[in-house]
């Protein structure tokens, strides 16, 4: 038999549970906008910059499928101010199993085409002698200028490069404040750190991807990405 206070306690527990579910749903509502810049120049292997693999791409695709949003791949070459290779995906979260299966089937062709195109670029090797690093940054910055439709995206730039630029075609720029930069392999001689106050440096790709997954799900501890 319930006492007078017990119904109140049960109601408060229900409200707490509902609030937690709502907060969790809010976290999952943020799509991602992720630019990926990959160094295809000769200086990258000379400076021990890691190679982006098919497994890494699959991890990035899974991240985009989970949250929805855009992956934009851009190779650093002699002339890097070129269109990104884009993959736009809708999140399947919240749909029924049948709807998720239908959505995955619809997206499978686009995912395969994007993956094949990016791998073709990576597999061609690092053969370019000149590096237009800041051209790639300027072009990817156009992705971050696109207006959001619906929930605001969490914006990231993944750089796999030594960050050196010997073309001098473009001036260094400051990226928007809501863009978090995750950089792998930056040389101590690079001035790439000046592009963002929120730049995190990694020695290898795997820990960088783990951190990206965490930020995409939870945002930063100080709430700036929430």
Helix content: 40-55%
Tell how many strands the DSSP assignment holds: 6
Please give the radius of gyration in angstroms.
Answer: 21 Å
The pLDDT mean sits at: 86
- Give the overall silhouette: globular
- The side-by-side strand order for the widest beta sheet comes to 3-2-1-4-5-6
Uncertain ranges = 7-27, 221-226
Give the DSSP E fraction (strand runs of 2 or more residues): 15-25%
Describe the main β-sheet briefly: 6 strands, mixed
Task: Spell the H/E element sequence.
Answer: HEHHEEHHEEEH
How would you describe this protein?
This protein is α/β, with parallel strands linked by helices. The chain has six helices and six strands. A six-stranded mixed sheet has the order 3-2-1-4-5-6, with helices on both faces. Strand 2 and strand 3 form a beta hairpin. Helix 3 runs parallel beside helix 6. It is globular, with a radius of gyration of 21 Å. The C terminus is likely disordered.
SSE topology:
Elements: H1 5-28, E1 32-39, H2 43-46, H3 54-67, E2 69-76, E3 85-89, H4 97-123, H5 133-144, E4 154-160, E5 179-184, E6 199-202, H6 205-218
Parallel strand pairs: 1-2, 1-4, 4-5, 5-6
Antiparallel strand pairs: 2-3
Helix pairs in contact: 3-6
């Amino acid at each position: 038999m319930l006492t007078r206070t017990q119904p109140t306690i049960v109601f408060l527990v229900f409200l707490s549970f509902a609030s937690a579910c709502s907060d969790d749903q809010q976290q999952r509502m943020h799509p991602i906008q992720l630019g990926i810049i990959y160094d295809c120049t000769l200086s990258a292997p000379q400076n021990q910059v890691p190679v982006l693999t098919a497994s890494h791409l699959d991890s990035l695709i899974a991240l985009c499928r989970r949250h929805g949003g855009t992956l934009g791949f851009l190779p650093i070459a002699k002339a890097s101010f070129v269109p990104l290779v884009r993959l736009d995906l809708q999140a399947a979260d919240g749909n029924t199993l049948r709807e998720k299966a239908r959505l995955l089937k619809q997206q499978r062709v686009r995912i395969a085409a994007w993956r094949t195109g990016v791998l073709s670029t990576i597999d061609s090797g690092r053969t370019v002698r000149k590096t237009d690093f800041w051209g790639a940054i300027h072009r990817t910055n156009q992705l971050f200028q696109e207006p959001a439709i619906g929930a605001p995206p969490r914006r990231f730039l993944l750089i796999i490069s030594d960050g050196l630029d010997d073309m001098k075609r473009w001036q260094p720029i400051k990226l928007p404040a809501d863009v978090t930069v995750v950089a792998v392999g930056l040389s101590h001689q690079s001035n790439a750190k000046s592009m963002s106050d929120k730049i995190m440096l990694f020695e290898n790709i795997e820990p960088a991807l783990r951190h990206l997954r965490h930020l995409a799900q939870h945002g930063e501890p100080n709430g700036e990405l929430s």
